[in-house]
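dude i think i finally got it to work??
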Amino acid sequence: MAFSREIFIASLFLSFLLFHLTTANQKMDIYEAQSPVSPAPQASPIDCGKACNYRCSTTKRPRLCNRACGSCCNQCHCVPPGTYGNYWACPCYFNLVNPRTGGRKCP
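look at this
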């Protein structure tokens, strides 16, 4: 008799658990259906010419620097702040590689 009582209690517990999981899933589906998904924020377009002119303002070869910076900016849509370094602000810019030399492409 004790054995059937344990089975009854276990089945009752499992049925309550299944009921709870089902209602929780239905509530989640209703919540997801009601909340609109907002689109990812779009990055504001960058003025590559202006950003690269400032980036290359202190270099000895500004035309070469502007050309390289411009191609990097067009691919990455960002230019690191300042005239040198600060690559953490634009990892794509830092990771572009010159295929001929294997060095960094962007100034």
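Residues 69 and 107 are 6 Å apart (CA to CA).
im so relieved honestly
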